[in-house]
UniProtKB/TrEMBL annotation:
Region feature Disordered, mapped onto this chain: 324-346
Keyword match Ion transport: no
SMART domains: SPRY
GO CC term, one of those recorded: SCF ubiquitin ligase complex
Entries under PROSITE patterns matching the protein: B302_SPRY
Residue ranges constituting the B30.2/SPRY domain according to the UniProt record: 36-228
Gene field: 5575317
GO biological process: proteasome-mediated ubiquitin-dependent protein catabolic process
Zinc listed as a keyword: no
Protein name: B30.2/SPRY domain-containing protein
CDD domains, per the entry: SPRY_SOCS3
Amino acid sequence: MTHNRRATYNMLLRSSENRSVPFCNCEYPAVTRSRHTARKIERCRCGEDTSTRLDWTWDVDCGHPDTKITNGTEIVFHPVYSQGTAVIRGTQPLQQGMHHYWEIKILSQLAGTDIMLGIGTDKVDLLAHRFKFASCLGLDDQSWGYSYRGLTQHNNQLKYYGKKFSQGRIIGVYVDMFRGVLEFYLNRRSQGRAYSNIPRDSKGCIYPMVCSTSAKSSIKLINAASFKDSLIFHCMRVISKYPKLLEQVQAIPGLRRHADDLWFLQLREPKKPDEFQRNNLLLEDEALLCGMKKKKFNEIVSQSQAQAPPENISEDQIYENMITEEDTKKQPLNGTRTISTSSSSEDEELAWMISREFFCNH
Ligand SMILES: [Zn+2]
């Protein structure tokens, strides 16, 4: 790692001091050198029964010599000690033009150079770093990875992405091979789009991948499914955003099956608090807001003068008023990033049409 790269890496690490919490409250067995653990702890099965579909498993045949794979789903990396990086890929490449979603449960505590989940082409040499500790996924343009440190990597470029993860977390990987989009979920919450440049031509075969440098680190594939890019898929994606509409669809026996099959579309991004939106306003928004802030302050003062004598008005209150107002108006700030997107209003319109066509009594 060059000096500059290490500096960037350290800077990114510092900025991603956001740890995640486990998916459930179960206790996990601790790794022990003794043959008998102090007490037997039942293995946690939480989240494993949502879907048991496994369209592919981990490839035992091209398995790394420093790993132990059980039932094609559970991997123990470096079962004795670690001397480098082990990379494992799925049995099948991800088919073009389809939507793929799989989930991995982290069974052990993670530590060390890196543990990454993601995808890579058939050109990735699984043994290249057998005797080197590396963040293997995303080292070049042939793979894309999400590190347990909360960073993503592609083409040797690290970027801050989401939360850190360790034992007890469920990481979902969604790959849209129709649009070339890669997205990661943590404990069934989307963390947003990680990459949108996944090749969609039929030349390269892209496989699910995972890599680890950590001795006795262990993960389990709990479900893996692929779906055709179809009208049903897109309708379900829109319907899933509206809980009442989804409820109505689930009440229809012929449609319930589709809602159940496409369960992962119902997983939601956490609602971002106003503070998050405020902190994420672009600098140009900030400049524009300064002018607006002055205007708004005068408005608030004149309003409060009409009702009561002016009190101390905090900056937060002023911003809050502006954001709520802009949000309700659904009008973009001129030339700046907007809070509401046009795609969501299109979705709302489509949901309204579906609701009207299917559920209104004509
Ligand atoms: Zn549990």
